[in-house]
Structures are given as C-alpha cells and as structure tokens.
Amino acid sequence: MTNPLTKASYEATEAELELMVLDSHHLPEEFRGFRLGREGEMDNDEMAEHGFPGNTGEGFRGLGRITGYHREFVAPPTRRTPPEGSDIAVATVAHLFTDEDSVSGWMSDVFLGQFEENVGKSVGVDQRLESVERVKACGYQSDALGIRAVQSSSKGLLSSTVIDFRVGRILGVAFILTVGDYEREALTNALAGELERQIVRVLLR
Questions:
Q1: Helix/strand/coil for 175
Q2: What Rg value do the Cα atoms of the chain yield, rounded?
Q3: What distances in angstroms separate CA 153 from CA 49, 80, 122, one per listed residue?
Q4: Per-residue pLDDT tens digits for 67-103
Q5: DSSP states along 82-136
Q6: What pLDDT sits at residue 123?
Q7: Minimal CA–CA distance to 195: which of 153, 158, 164?
Q8: Could you tell me the sign of the dihedral formed by the alpha carbons of 198, 200, 202, 205, in that order?
C-alpha cells in the first residue's frame, strides 16, 4: 500500500514548494536574529550553475529533478569579521522530482557522490573543497543523508553541515554555514526535522 505522504507528494504542485521551506519563525532559537537573504525558485539551469563543475540543467532534468525553492537567512551585518565558530547563514530547500526513486538516486549520486568526488578540487573562484565527512541524519520518516564539508579560500575556512531527506517525491535540504572548521550536526538535524514537519503540514493540509 502506498504511504499516504508519498501519495500526497504526487499531488504537490511547484507553487507549494515556497510554502514548504522554513520562514524565520520556524528557525531554531539560535537563528532568530538572522535576516532574510536570498530566496526564490531554483530551476535546473540555475541549480547546475551553482553546483559542481560539469553539471547541466539538461542533465539534472534527466535525473528526474523538476524544480526547487530555497530560502536563506544570514547573520546580522557587523563591522568586524565574524569570529571562528560563528554561524553566518542558514537555509532550507524543497526540491520536486518526478518520483521517489529519483530523489533517492539524487541523494546518493549527486549530493553525496559529487561532494566526495570533488575533495581536493577547485569548486569556484579562489575556493577549494578541503574535506567531506558524513554526519548522522537520524529520526526521519524515510531516506536521509548528512555531510560536513570544509572549503578554503583566501579569507579562510568555511564549514557547511548539510542534511538531505526524502518525503515521497520531495527532497528536503537544510544547511548551516559556519566560519572555520566546525560541525553543526545536532543543530542541522533540528533544522531539518522542522523542515520535514513543515513539508508534511503542507502535503496533508
């Protein structure tokens, strides 16, 4: 029998993705002072442009990705450089795929696979991916993966802790960007857990 959430995900529309990503009042207490940064739809061409070198919009379409919506919040501006260990951005994303198998394939091949394949390589102007390690992603209703990636630039190190999880044919993503070589496993799981609850609320309303 089809899981009710999986069934509901096939009735979800592209317009509903905006309702699934977290707003400021959904964020953990640690981010309540953060301000809205970037948000908007992420079609396959834009996704490829901001991904690892070699990706294309057509390639992502072939993997079953339809579109997505992201919302980011950033730390309040300050005259001083944020100290080591400071969280400077937090974001959630909801992606819509053709089916749940496409989501699972994306998580293992694109999300995890491409991060691990690009360790030690340039990932942008003056940016190098130094390391990737897996972190625990526990308590989700279906597939879930987590990583912590460290990248370097002339300004120093930045760490991204990222959790991907699946709800039917929807991929939810939560990440926290931190100054220095730090992990935010527990906090990112809390953020992703709230994102999963919001996706479920939208699907079952």
A1: strand
A2: 16
A3: 20, 18, 10
A4: 999 999 999 988 788 899 999 999 999 999 999 999 9
A5: PPTT-EEEEEEEEEEESSHHHHHHIIIIIIIHHHHHTTTSEEETTEEEEEEEEE-
A6: 84
A7: 164
A8: negative
